Amino acid sequence: MLIAMSGHRAVGVVGLGRMGLTLAAGFGVAVEPGRLFAAGRSPASVARLREAVPGAVVQPLAELPRQAGLIVLCVRNADLPTVLDELRPRLTARHIVITVNNGLPLRTLAEAVPGPVAKLIPSVGNDIGVGATLLVPGPRLTAQDTEDLLVLLRSFSTPFVIEESQGRAATDLASCGPALVAGAVRAMVDAQQERGAPLSRELAERLVAQSLHALSRLVGQGARLDDIVNRVAVPGGNTAAALAAAENDLAAAWRAAFQATTDNERSKPAPQLGAGRA
Fold this sequence. Notes:
Elements (H helix, E strand, L loop, with lengths): L1 E4 L5 E5 L2 H13 L5 E4 L3 H10 L4 E2 L5 H4 L2 E5 L5 H8 L8 E4 L6 H7 L4 E5 L10 E6 L5 H11 L4 E4 L5 H8 L2 H18 L6 H20 L4 H8 L5 H29 L12
Helix pairs in contact: 8-9
């Protein structure tokens, strides 16, 4: 599926899965009705889009550049050459092309299209107006282009401008982060259940959800993580004992998790996209 947004800068997003639908829903909030466009690559993807973003206007893929000046590519590396081959005849130096693939070097994308390029990494929650987005400006993207993009992103997320070299680490925390934290919290509940705690699964999950909510609010109000730890983990107390017992294993688990994302990304070579400039 291709999803595009028209406005001062038209945006095109290519994606068949959850990431594309998340961005479509977010961009649907950022633009006026009738100014979000989508080009579906299958009937199923179009149906999912219509359900998630009823106001999106479906367009053939090759026609998308006529409607959108900003094209966001939410497809796998393996699909990028085919998608770009279809878009390229109508891409001009005025089109901004964005990839959401952290493993695709921006210099490779810049060589394949005539205009500015950038990288955008969304996160779960963007479809309901929360969560981070990571923006990596690339070749030929001006400071004004970057600011225009940030205005759009602020409509449905908290955007951060980062360097491409920071992409993997920042993605682990901002994009993978919600799932990783949810997995860690699930393990916390599992551990209490395995110990025979006299709590139902539903009650345990509700209690830990309130802990997450409180943590988020405190950090949002400026508290640092160390401040929160020190506020609760008084010397000699139960929380301090728990942290001391788990600290080494927690650090080792996160190191293993982040090494796995790095290894997995490196295992998928960047595609050959062809030349896009004369």
